[in-house]
């Protein structure tokens, strides 16, 4: 399929999803998303400083983002045309070296001082912690941080920072139209062992996995379950991209508001996932499964409503997929899109860029 066909198919599906009930669109701004995305492809320019040495990243998503960016047409050798500046460094860079790096940018180039780093961005899976060093303070507080989901609470600044969609299952077979035999699927590690998990194990409607499964079994389980359970904070949420792609509506169990969902500026996560506040992770006593069933029934007892949300999931899923060679609207392009939304920074002395 040519990129153009891909694009027009996408257009069509977006058009259909917004011309029918607007309520079920997974997008925050369904009308402006496509035109703005096109504008990004045409005009977004990034200037990358030269990496100090070959870079080593701690996760595949970071590496993919980096290699995709360097090989993209977003890069410009002309800093005067750039909307944003990329500060490349390896995952394990000691804070002392990082401070020196920022100091070099400050003294060797005129760009840092214009915004004290606000039109700069960097990739760091773990995010930067607190540090009183001036260089690191400006980098952390002003520059856009791209880190891994879920983030450490202290290393993520909402509205400024971005999280990378977790790397989904690379095999990624097309969504199958299996009948949904199970109400819920708990993937191995996605929810910590607890009385809730024990209870769900005894419940025929839930599929609780206590050993990692092979890819085919995993995909089948995603396809035949209405909901996939995750625990934010303690569990492994990396499967959330797979769940969304396979139309297994994620149920995110959390004891606090979540501000670092991937593509948070683009996707209406409340249309894609169910967030269940769970003060007591043990399930609040002995009827956690009953409570969960109640919440799911109350929210999506209606089959039509469930199918709408599942459709939103599948539409959103294409944006969470990483490709070795970036494809339109995939995780790489959507991460770029979030940067594009952040390009308007105050410049103390600015040169006009288109
Ligand atoms: C870089 O991009 C070109 C075409 O734009 C593509 O053929 C090549 O495979 C890409 N290389 C990598 C490492 O992604
Ligand atoms: C940026 O400002 C600092 C003072 O905060 C100064 O030392 C440095 O030389 C300036 N950089 C440039 C390129 O002028
Ligand atoms: C796919 O799923 C929909 C909704 O559940 C159903 O109406 C349709 O008949 C299914 N199609 C096939 C080919 O199984
Ligand atoms: C939370 O769960 C634990 C273990 O089941 C229980 O002992 C405790 O009373 C619960 N706390 C609340 C506030 O429900």
TrEMBL record:
Subcellular localization, as worded in the UniProt entry: Golgi apparatus membrane
Keyword Transferase annotated: yes
Keyword annotations from UniProtKB, A to Z: Glycosyltransferase, Golgi apparatus, Signal, Signal-anchor, Transferase, Transmembrane
Record bears the keyword Metal-binding: no
Domain of life (superkingdom): Eukaryota
Leader peptide range in chain numbering: 1-24
Sequence ranges assigned to domain Exostosin GT47 in this UniProt record: 61-277
GO molecular function: glycosyltransferase activity
A Pfam family recorded for this sequence: Exostosin_GT47
InterPro entries in the cross-refs: Exostosin (IPR004263), Exostosin_GT47 (IPR040911)
Membrane topology: Single-pass type II membrane protein
A cellular-component GO term for this protein: Golgi membrane
Family: Belongs to the glycosyltransferase 47 family.
Name of the protein this chain belongs to: Exostosin GT47 domain-containing protein
């Amino acid at each position: 399929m040519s990129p153009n066909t891909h694009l027009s198919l996408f257009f069509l599906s977006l058009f259909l999803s917004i011309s029918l009930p607007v309520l079920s669109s997974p997008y925050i701004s369904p009308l402006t998303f496509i035109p703005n995305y096109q504008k990004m492809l045409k005009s977004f320019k990034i200037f990358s400083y030269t990496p100090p040495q070959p870079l080593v990243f701690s996760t595949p998503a970071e590496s993919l983002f980096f290699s995709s960016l360097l090989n993209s047409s977003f890069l410009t050798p002309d800093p005067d045309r750039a909307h944003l500046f990329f500060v490349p460094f390896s995952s394990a860079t000691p804070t002392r070296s990082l401070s020196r790096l920022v100091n070099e940018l400050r003294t060797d180039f005129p760009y840092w001082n214009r915004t004290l780093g606000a039109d700069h961005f960097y990739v760091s899976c773990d995010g930067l912690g607190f540090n009183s060093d001036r260089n690191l303070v400006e980098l952390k507080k002003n520059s856009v941080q791209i880190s891994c989901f879920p983030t450490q609470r202290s290393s993520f600044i909402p509205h400024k920072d971005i999280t990378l969609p977790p790397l989904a299952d690379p095999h990624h077979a097309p969504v199958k139209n299996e009948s949904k035999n199970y109400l819920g699927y708990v993937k191995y590690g996605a929810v910590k062992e607890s009385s809730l998990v024990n209870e769900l194990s005894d419940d025929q409607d839930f599929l609780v996995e206590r050993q990692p499964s092979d890819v085919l079994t995993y995909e089948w389980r995603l396809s035949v379950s209405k909901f996939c359970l995750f625990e934010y904070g303690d569990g492994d949420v990396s499967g959330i991209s797979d769940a969304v792609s396979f139309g297994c509506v994620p149920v995110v169990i959390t004891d606090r508001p979540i501000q670092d969902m991937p593509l948070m500026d683009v996707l209406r996560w409340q249309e894609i996932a169910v967030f269940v506040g769970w003060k007591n992770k043990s399930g609040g006593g002995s009827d956690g499964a009953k409570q969960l069933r109640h919440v799911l029934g109350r929210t999506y007892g209606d089959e039509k409503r469930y199918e709408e949300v599942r459709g939103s999931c599948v539409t959103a899923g294409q944006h969470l997929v990483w490709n070795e060679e970036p494809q339109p609207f995939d995780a790489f392009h959507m991460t770029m899109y979030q940067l594009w939304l952040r390009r308007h920074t105050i410049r103390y002395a600015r040169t006009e860029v288109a």
